[in-house]
Every structure is written in structure tokens, then in C-alpha cells.
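Internal QA ticket QA-208
Title: Verify multi-chain structure generation after dependency bump
Assignee: T.L.

Test input:
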Amino acid sequence: MPRLFIALLLVSSLSAEVDFSRDVQPILNKNCIACHGGVKEASEVSFIYRDQVLGKGESGKIVVIPGDPDGSEMMVRITSDDPELLMPQPEHGPRLSDEDVKTLRNWIKEGAKWGEHWSFTSPKKHKAPNVKDSTWPVGKIDHFILAKLESNGLKPSAPARPAEWLRRASLDIIGLPPTIAELDAFEVAAKNDYAQAIEKETDRLLASPHFGERWASVWMDLARYADSEGLGNDRKRDVWKFREWLINAFNQNLPYDQFVIEQLAGDAIPNATLEQKIATTFHRLTQANSEGGTDDEEFRLIAAMDRNVTTWEVFQGISMNCVQCHSHPYDPLKHEEYYNSLKFFNNTRDSDATDNSPVLPIPLDPNKYAEANNLLNKIDQLEQTIHDAWLEVDKSSVWHPVTQLSASSNTAHLSIVEKDGFAEFRASDNAKINSIYTLTAQVPEKLKEFTAFRLTYLPKDEGKALTDAEWGASLNHIQVEKIGVDGKAQLVKLIDVIPDEAHPFFNPNKSLQKRGMGWGTYYKFFRPRHATFVLSEVLPVGEGEKIRFTLQNGGMYMASFALVAKRGRISLSDDSAWVTGQTDSKFVNARSDLQQARKQLNTIPHVNTLVIAERDPEHSRVTNFFNRGNWLDKGQVIQTASTPSVFPPMQAKAGKPNRLDFARWIASPKNPLTARVFVNRLWLEVFGVGIVPTPEDFGSAGEKPTHPELLDTLAVEFATEMKWDIKAMLRRYLTSAAYRQSNKVSPKLHELDASNRLLTRGPRQRLTGEMARDSALLASGLLSRKIHGPPTFPPLPPGVWRPFAGPKWKTPEPGDPERYRRAVYTFWKRSIPYPTFITFDAPTREMCSKRRMPSNTPIQALAVMNDPAFHECAQVLGQRMLMCKEESVHAKIALGYRATTSQRITPERLTELRKLFDKLEQNFTDNPLQSKKLAETADGAAYAVIASVLLNLDEAITR
Amino acid sequence: MNLFEKLQAEKLQHSTRREFLRDCTTGLGGMWLASQGVSNAAGPLNISRDPSSPLAPLSPSFAPTAKRVIYLHMVGAPSQLELFDYKPTLEKYDGKECPKEYLEGQRFAFIQGVPKMLGPQFKFSQHGQSGAWVSDRLPQLAKHADKMCFIKTMQSDQFNHGPAQLLLQTGSPNLGHPTIGAWATWGLGTDNQNLPGYMVLISGGRIPRVGSSLWGSGYLPSVYQGVQCRSTGDPVLNAANPAGISSDIRRAALDSLKNLNERTFHEIGDPETVTRIAQYEMAYRMQTSVPETMSIDDEPAHIHEMYGTQPGKESFANNCLLARRLAEDGVRFIQLHDWGWDSHGSSKSEALNGGFQDKCRQIDKPISALLTDLDQRGMLDDTLVVWGGEFGRTPMLENRGGGSGNKFTGRDHNPNAFTIWMAGGGVKPGMTYGETDEMGYQVAKNPVHVRDLHATMLEMFGFDARRLSYNYQGLDQKLIGVKPAKVIKDIIA
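Actual output:
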């Protein structure tokens, strides 16, 4: 019964006319969509698009005829008594209720009006509704809340006591409970003017440097932030500069539209700052797989698909995962639209390489960011300048293909194939690592002078490789000799290797030095790639002479793949510009500047951080449709990246739409979802349940907003007049009368509104895992308030840390402030997440997580009672009570109670704890050995146990 | 209805009961609601659970043949061709180049180009009345051949360890899905409320690479995730009191805590507080029962002798004995992971002519003892024992990096065909299901995909795998996913 009542409460403005998205769609989603939706269109019937509903099924009968329920096949089927005809078929589900049948009948009778799902249409601002009790509302929010309460015959709860409000606000906004001094000050101020005290305190909290830490930990679930790579070996990787960026972004109140754009496409913003480049780490937090024998291309694609899906989930509240394999089961998102959107993310330079490339050397000291960014830009420009200049040289050069070639190797089977006017070499598939190829070319007839040669590595199957990349190769060393007519060999000195891209991951010139990876097609490549090798001087060559190339191939990659060339061609040039260019001041200066800039950059202490970077247009990847979502079964080529047609169209700033255009499209006031999804997320964190209770799904399978006008008004205001100001929005929430209510709940009220969706009372939430740790540290006085820095390693229970692949978990000694850093800095390893966080329902952050579902388990109890980190807090809090200036046991207990719960102790509680204290003190006096394990003295040990009880109180782990 | 709404609705339904319990919170954890249960109406199974006793036992849809599971996962994938799938033809091809048709359209983790075939490395003989082929590496286990049901034609669609292990445990190669243990615990609850319902034991010196996701609860509530038992430190994380806190002190502290929390409940009225009181009481009982169950010291000498156990050591043998103790004490799903079966031939420890033989010795006696022990206690009938890896191994010699010349012998990953076996819990004893081709490379007859194994196991627990679902992100999520899965009726007694 209570459930029914709630359902009635939530359907507010029941109008006479049937509304498609409010009344009809839920019935269809529940009963029909499984067979007649985006996944399956059984008998050619689907209820996703209007034209399909008004069309014919396989039987030739029209599904729905507007205005004619009796003529509509749908009505015939759902009301049939013939089990052969009845829908849903009896084995698939129960018969529709009479009420549902009536709704559908009325809907058709009224013309079967179609409505787009509410969240896919633009939000409109609404006037604050009138309320009977005009004294209660503080702001506009309260009018919406109260109007709803009043329409349901309910009243708001009394205001919370100041200590209750401050505890809630402090934990919600900065993730830490108030200190006793803060409580004292606030209680005094509130006595004077509660409303004003709330305003001032809210401003203080929003200005606190801890604000960013609290909201970063919220965003880190969405960003799937972890310090390890996930799948496979789950190795450590350096991404903590992104956390630093996130904390700063919140603290500096970066407008949300900018916050979105920088994370999705910071690298593409013109004149991007280093901060904006760091923001792109957001999408490098996808998993990587460095397990031996894994296909980099597979896991690169998995990461790209994750970026696509995560973008839709985080910023749009749309579940896109299922659209990889088929059209969305409930929402008008077509299968191919997934791939149109994937194309935005499919051209980044990362490739699941074990070296994590691309990375940027981010200075440890943020004061050096501007300097480093200038150097990085300079390096980029110089590399581009040099590359472009060589392209000019190349344009006028004539390349003479090698048409007569012999090849040998003692560790690979080589053969020569005539193709496209070349004599090219091919190697057998099981060519061994570090194979040495000896290629001897006859000097081409017309060639009189030899200045440079071009080595091209090609995929074995060029057509197929465009969509199924092949394993690449590395040229670890190359040596060239001229063989005279007399057979004598003369070493040919090489001076430069010019790659076919401006910004290669490895220095191609290393191929001349025998120092590991040089020029190559590592690790997977799609198209032929080449490099031009330049001689130190023009070498006269003649008929009958030969050139011998000795190629040393690369070693093993990921313990499995040999980075060995499988197919290659050589052509020679007689253009002296290659050689003279080397001493041309244009190149010489650019190179020396480049070297200088690199050197300078390297002197800045830094951490190589994973970032997103786009591939050059000439090396861009092809994006295909995947048949049934299978990446090995590629369908048509996606020509242009685009957004689903159900949404407002996207404008490309110039040329073809790119990732930046997409980011701007999301961060636009015209996007119907962005602002709604975000104001709802803030609401969820603060009020405990979202206005849309399913923050992960704003589609038609999700729940409808409890206060739709409020949500839309907040969304419009946030995206327009408030200019995406996050702190200002939170300020509105915190200073509202709704938030100020006491969280006391009577059995009757609880029965009426169990999850407090109507806000009949103030929110009461369990602490998150992060808050649980930080609160215990704060109460005991151990908390380090240092902001930022690399991951930290707090105490762990023994036996937990057995990583598959490092790093060591080195906990600083007791007393070292690094041992007591806030939870947000804890090293986050996906395969061994920090137990306290997981126990308190944190996700493992393997993928984007939109909501934590609070649980209440014995494992949580064991953690707060016995986990070494909590136990240390209990001991130190006990000491704090023992040593405090208050003399009496009562006062000491009261202090501990206030430190852990933010409340003043009641006499009954004091009596209870005093009774326990006396018992403990007696016990420890009788058992000094036991006592010593907890504290110096018996009373100290007793306080430690009292402190543990206090930390475990229901009040201490709720806010 | 989505997950959140469902939980909220459930809480609401049960809140009246909590009012009743407000004044009598003792013994709360052991109780559960009559309204909890499994509905048998058409469509997806609707399992409703009281969030304050989420592990209370429930009856499945139909009579189960297995009440509990002991799953012995050999991490890294043991070679079926050296243990159970005897291939005399392969012996003849030993050292010859692999036929081209075996390589076309296949993806390998390590093999490149044209590898050579590798014959069985050990001697095989037939055992028991069933005449099952078992190699000489498992002499003790071979004596139980008539208790075992071999599936020779298991198939996976993943050929890397991480994704394949996830597929085997969760039905999906990607992270974020509940494991079969979590599904079983969610659907059936557990018989002993003083122990977790789903426990995980690890041996071989290493935790599997995907870590806790191999016993995670995915989108199911976190209470259904496996609890990892440890051989160093507390058997269950934080089960032991800190130094200086005796059991008496803990009890006294908990009594006060309870009184204080009850006061809070009277003042605020939040039912979560009542649940919390119950959870602390359950935690206290777990503190006693977990170490009791997890200590093998009190086992008689002949049992230690039979299993080859040494108390205090991390070993597969200890874990087998622990598995029996947990099963006896009412744990629903007992998952063992034994690391070290990835015999590529890349080093001594990972070679058929090296570490593989040690691994065989480490499991032969304990598994044999476990089967005997369960049988003698009358528990084998309703305890399903499953043994297997995440995929099989190729009949070709591995040639990573392009060539052999290695003194160690090994095989690459083969997802196309591998052997697992089951015993007890209602499987047909002494039978073999499915046949591989003459090289043991592909399935020749009766393929069993991992999905089919899952469907079959759920059937044994009393659930229709097509209906056991959980609504998440708007979809009825299932262990078997969306592709068709079949119950292998032939192997169910």
C-alpha cells in the first residue's frame, strides 16, 4: 500500500489528456520494447519511432490508427483472448492491466499524439509557483519544493539545529566535518541570525581549498580516475596531474562549459594552455592492456569506444553502451549513430602502447607550466617547420625505385616480389626478433649520384590494413655500403633520418646509432610508412655498382610480438638538396633551436603524464561501422563524425566536424541535456537523491524528474544567466530552506516518502568511503591538510597488497604527515582498490560510474572497528581526549563525541559512555599488558576504546 | 523499475517490520522476511530482498541439484592435451609444420607464422569403469574418474587471460559484471549468516591479474561480492580485533554502541540506523565464526595426511581443505584460484617440461582428497565441484618472437577447445561430453560455450538462466548475456 501512495504522490499534475512520454511510453517500455524496440523488431513492429508505430507490421495490419482504437492492431492484440494472438505473448510477460489498456485506448482515441522524450527537448524556465506558506521559502528552489509538498497535503520539517546543518554542509561541500572551533563560531553566529550565518558559512566553505578535493573525488568516479591501467597487468601510470587540475578547476570555479570543453578537447583549443592539455587526461583514464599477447589495436578500440560511451554517459546522461551492438532499445538512437559519434574519438595518437605514448612532461611545479608550455609549443612548431621544409625538398626530388634486389637473413626467410615497379622484400611471418636483413640493390640505371634513399615499410595486405592494422616494426640500426664493380665494400656515411611525420614518438636518428628503438612503424600500422635517409655527402655511383643495406630489426614487444619488418621497398635519390639542406642555415638553426628547447624542457623536473593528442590529418585513421558491434567484423566506412539526429544539429567551426566541435556542442546552452544532467548531479550529492533519481539515465528507461519545472528552471538559469557557475549553483542549494530542514523522520513520514524525494525533511546520507577516512583523521587531529601531490600510501591491513605488477606500497611511518593525507590522494589501483573505499561502496573505477549505491554491511562495521588506519585514529583520538585541557572524564568524553559527530552530547549518552569508561579503566588497570598495547596508561587505553566506539557511531558515519 | 527505485521500494516495504523491531533489535541479523523470495510469474525473475538481511536463504525457481559450489579455477589455463584430452594422432604429427588450414582466420596471442605441432608430452591411460583418459601427471585424481564428468569441448571467445577469466566468471570479457558466485549468492542467499555467502581462496603465489573483479558483484549490490580469504593477516579482512582489544572489551564496547545507536534511532527515526545495529551484531559474530572455520589446526592427522596440508601456509592443499570446511559451514559459493598454469615454454616455471609438472603435483592429492572427503561426509551429492582454466592450449608448439630453439616446451592459448570437469551436485558421474578433432584443436562434436556452462550451472542451482536477470541501465541483465545459451541436459543426472 505505501508504495501505491507514493506513486500517487509523485504523479502531480494529472491532466485529462493522455501524454505520450508521461503515460504511454512507460507502458510500451515495460511491456513491448523487449521484442518491438531498438534491439529486436519482431514481426517488423517497433515502438521507438512514430512512423513505425503508424506503419504496418509483417502481417500487413496497421499497428496504430490515430483516432481508431478498434481498428488498431495493437489494441486487438493486447485485448485478445486468443493465446495465439495475445500480446505480450503469455510466455513473455503478463497481460496488460485494465488501466494500461484504457490509457492506450484513450491515447489512440485522442489521435495517438507523439511526444519526444522530455529530456531530449529544450528545457524552459518556469515561474516560481505560488505557495500558501510564503514565510518558508528562502529562494526560488523552495517555492517549487513547497508547492509540491502543499499539493500533497504535506508540510516541510522544522529547521535543523545549527550543528546539524553545519555538519551536513561541511561534509557535502568540503568533504570534512566541522572542527570544534568552527562549530562554536557557527553556533554563536546562528543564535544571532541563523539565515545570515548560513550565508556566510556557505561562502566560507565554497572558498575553502578543500572544496576542490571533495568535488574532485565525485568527478573521479565519472572520469574513472585510477593510478593504474586496469586490464592485464594493471601497471602503475602517472595521471595525478589530472587530479591536481581537477581540484584547481573546482577551487577556481572554472565555468562548467569550459570544464567540459577542456576535458574533451583541451588539446584542440587554439593556443591551449598546459592546464588545458592536462585536462585531456580525462579520456586517457580508460583502461589499457599490457598483458603479453594482447592486440594493441583491440584495446585501443576498446579505449576509444569507452571514450565515446563515457562522454555520453557523463555529460548527457545517456546510456550509449548498448548502441555499439544494436540500436538503443528504448531511445531513438540508431546503431550507426554510435559510430558517427565514435569517429570523434578514433583519431587520437594513443594506441594502447606499453610506453603509454603520448605523454607530456608536466612540470612538478605549476609555476613552470607556462614556461614548459612555451617550450612544448616551440618544439612542435620547430618540428613542423623542419618537416614542412623537407616536404618542399621532397616535392622536387625524383625517386628511383630499386628494381633489382637480393635479400638474405639467417633468422628470417626473405623473398623478393616485383610490385608497382619495385623489387620489394618480404619476410616470413615467423621472422625472429632482432633479425638482420641484408638487402643488396643494383644501382638504378639513370642514377649517377646518390644523396638519399627512402625506406618504405608496407602492410602485407594494404587494403585490409586500413581497417585491420598490422603489427609494425622498428629499425634499430641501419648500415649502408657501396659495393664497387670489383666487389669491394665502402661504408656509406649517413647523416640524417627524416620521417614522414612531424612529431614521431621515437627519435628516428636512433636508427643510425644502434641505441634501441629508432625509426619504425611501431606498434600497429595502417598504411605504408617511410623515412628518408640522407648521406653525409653526395656519392658518385655508376653502372654495375651495388648498394648494400644492412637492417637490424627490433626486439620483442609486450613479451610476444617481434618488431620485425615484413615488407619493404627502397628508392634512391640523386637530388643534392638532401645533402646541402643539412648545412642550410634554415635547417641548422631550426635544429639547434629544437635541441635547445628539448634540453631546456628536460631540465624542468616533471612527470610524464598521459594526455590526448590528435593524429596528423595525413595519418588519420579510418572509422568503420562494426557489424553487430564486433570490431573484427567491419562494415561501411563512416565518412563524417556527427551527433544523433534526435538532438539539435551540431555546427562545425570549419571543415569537417571534430572533437572540439563536439565538445562545444555539448557545452552549449542549446544542448537539452548538459545543464540538466549537471545540476541534477550537484543536487544528488547534496540532497541524497537526484531530481531525476536515475542520474545515469535521462533516457526514457530512466525515471522522470520529481520536480520537472524546478529541474528545467535550474538548468536554463545555470546555462544562461549564471554562466555555468558551479559554486553559485551549490550556494543556492545550500542556502535553501529545503536543505536547512531537520532530518528527523517520523514513521508516518517515512512511510509516505521513504527516500525523501519530496524533501519532506533534510537529507541524511551515510559518509562516502573518502569522508569516512577523512572524518576519522580530522576527529583525531591527524589529518594533513596539504593539497595536491602524487598518490599517497596510507596504512593497509596486512595481506592486502599483493599486486600482479608493482608498485610497492610504502606507508610513511606514524607521525609523518604523508601518512595522514586525505583519501582523494590515495593510490588507486583498479585490481586492488583501497579496502575502506570499496567497503563503503566506491566503484573500482574500471569504467565510468554514475552513482554509488550505499550499502550497509558487516564488512563496514569490521573496517571502522578494526582496520589499522581507523584503529590508529581511535588511539590518537583517545590520546586527544586524555590530554585535552578539560579535567573531568565527562568533559573529555563530551569532547570526543563532539569531534566525531559534531553534536553536543546528551546526558543519557554521557551516562552510557561513562559507564563503559569505568568498566574499561578497571579492566585495563587489571590487565596492564593489554592496556600497554593501546596506550601508556589504563585510562588512556580506556579513552582509546571509547574513541573507537565514537568513530563507529551511526551519527559519526552519517551526515 | 531501476535498481535504485527497487531498493527504495524494498526498504519501504520492510520499514514497517523495522518499526516492530525497533524495541527488540537482538537477533535481528538472523531473521529475514517472509516476503523475501523469488516470484514465479512469467517474464524476468523478480527476486526481492530485504536490504537489512540481504543474504537470507531463498528457494530457487525449481528444485536444485546443487546446494553449493566449489569452483577450482586453474589460473593461466592448464593444457588439456597433457591432462585429459588424449590425442594419439597429434603424437604422430609431433615436430611437423602446422597445416595451413589450422592457421587461417585464427588470432593467436603469441604464435607467429607457421609453428610446429607438439605431441602429448605425457603418458595417458584409461581409468575406472568409464574408461576416462587421464595422463600420468594426475595419478591420484585418476582414481576418481568414475565420479567425474568431463566436458572436452569448452569454448571461449577470448584468447587473452584477463578478458577470458572475466568471461568465465562473469559471462562478459569486460569489467563491471557480476560473477557467477555473486549471481548465485544473490539468487540463493546463504545458509550461515555468520559467514559471508561467497568466499574466495587464492594460491600459487599470485592474485589473478584482473584482481577483485574476478569475484566482484558488478551491478548487483556490493554485499554479493566474494570475500577474499587471506593466508597472511586476518583470514577475512579486519576480522581480528586490534592488539589490546579482547573479545570481552569488544563486546562491552558493542553493547554501548548499540545502546547509543538505538538512542539515535529514537531521536532521528532513520531505519538505516536499525540496519546498522544489526550489521554490527553480525560483524561481531563473524569475528568468531570466521577464524573458527578458517583454522585447520583442529583437523585430525589423517585429514592433513590425505590433503597434504600444512597449517599456516598458503597452499592449494590448504585451500581445498578450507573449501570443505566452508562448504560444511554453509557457505554458498567457494571459489579457488590457483595461479601458475600458463605453460608457454617461455621460462622454466611456465613450461610443460618444467613448472607445469609441479603444478600437477600440487593439485593431484588435494583435489583427490577433497572428492573423497566430500563423498565420505555425504556432501558430494549436493556440492558441485568444478575444475578448469579460462581457455585451452594449442596443439602447436609456441614460437614467440619468431622462433624456438628454447629448451622449454609450451603451448599458446587456444580458446577453441578445452577441457573442464565437474563432480557431484547432480552431474552425471563417469561420463565424457563432447569430442575435439584429432589434434585437440577444434570442437568436432557438441561444443559447450562458456555461456552454456553458466546456463547449466544455474540450472543446477534451480534457476532458468534466461530468466535470472537484474534490471540495470534499463536492461534485464543476465549472466548469459543476450546470445543464446543452452543447458547441457545430457550431463545432469
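Spot checks passed. The longest strand of chain A covers residues 529-540.
Status: verified.
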